[in-house]
Specification:
disordered N terminus; eleven-stranded antiparallel beta sheet; outer membrane lipoprotein receptor (LolB), chain A; transport; lipoprotein; 14% helix; 44% strand; chaperone; 3 helices; 11 strands; mainly beta
Amino acid sequence: MLERHYAVFRFLPLASLLLASCSVHIFSGSYKSHALPDWRSHQKAVSRLTNYQIRGVFAYFSKGEKVCARFYWYQISDDSYQVLLINPLGNTEMELSVKKGMAQLVNNHGTRYVSSGDLEIMFQKLTGISIPFDNLRHWMLGLPGDALDFMLDSLGHLHQVNYRHNNQHWVVTYQGYHSNTPLVLPSHLELCQGENRIQFKIDSWSL
């Protein structure tokens, strides 16, 4: 059950971190239909990935607030994963573990929060950051998730996603892909919702 004094925990220790690693690489391409055979084949292959690791940089911008950290995403199975945020000194700022509907978040003071409900609600209450986690795993892979409104680039990979959820409009834009992996997977993506922006710069994938 979520503790009632959750509001005490915010990402304030991260707010002063340097953003030098959070540059944006602009990707350009033309849009094509979702029905492209190459897209369907790519979508099917990527959807089969259930065990992998991602390393990169996470950045959050909102009304003058800037948060940046290294992130490590360990996908263990289709419904189990772990996410770590690490500061430049190598200290863990946050550890998020999700397993079969149960979510646990441990902050940089070692305080543990557990919820069997909506992870998105718990995370927003604890950090002030809204993230649609049910779709985030798909977006990280370059898949549209529950979104029906999306566009492809000229190579048949996902370029932009429009997703409406809980009276929020999310726009996910892909600014680059890794081409040295067994599958073409994102290297830069940005999530925008109102004045809030979340950027992921993915350095490496381990499949």
